Amino acid sequence: MRKIFSRKIFSSKQTEPKIKIEGEKEDALQKHFLSLYVDGSSSFSGSGAGLVLISPDGRMLQYFLRFQFKATNNKAEYEAIIKGLTLAKHLEVQKIRVFSDSQLVINQINGEYEARGKEMIKYLSKVCSLMSKFQYCYFLRIPRIDNSRADILSKLATIKEISRMGNVFREDIQNPNIMENEDMMDIDVEASWIDPIINWLKDGLLPSNKVEARRVTYRSNRFYLKDEVLNKKSYALPLLRCLQPTEAEYALKEVHAGVCGNHIGGRYVAIILEEGLCFIKF
């Protein structure tokens, strides 16, 4: 997904921020940060949010989120932050700066304000949990004028007549992100085709069935395990990352969302996934 990102669009008291660096070290480190700008909007016509991700070399990914539930400005702001951090995590980003013009939300996350009310506490807890996934993650409040792009996207999200806009991703959010844990239920997850190969390359374990064991040892020659991630060897391309079913579903969803606006078919989706160095077995 990291390659897809780079090629696709680029047209209760909580913890302190995870980074505090001063002087020249800060300037050098900032060059490697992904920047996330967020803004939430709530009006009589609906509520939504806008978010803009900018890579260290200046390429941009834009989203507007349309909520199918009532959300205040602050809740919409949190929803945008959660979506942005989730995207960054899937893109394997390690260093991220989050910018918002919301004094309340930024100060709650930075531990300067106390979150009050069950929903705000849940939102804050969700954000802090996502922050722990990054090597560096910190939040800065900026003037509204410096957050104009995300602000415009959040306003567009509340206009029902707008279904898509150029190279901007749109997503309809049915339920608040803080409901995810409450709605979860236990399900049986089917074993992936990746698992036997990983077990063999990592631990030397083979299936008990002799035919299946021979198949795994033969197929494993075409794969390479690096940092717990299975990669498929390729003559024409770099290593292709193999995706678990849940990862594959996410990859297809993100790529399809980007190309459907131009009415491009499934074959082009497959090409983008291949260029994004993702390998999915159906």
TrEMBL record:
Pfam families assigned: RVT_3
InterPro entries per record: RNaseH-like_sf (IPR012337), RNaseH_domain (IPR002156), RNaseH_sf (IPR036397)
Molecular function GO labels: nucleic acid binding; RNA-DNA hybrid ribonuclease activity
Entry superkingdom: Eukaryota
Entries under PROSITE patterns matching the protein: RNASE_H_1 (PS50879)
Domain RNase H type-1: start-end pairs: 30-159
Protein name, per record: RVT_3 domain-containing protein
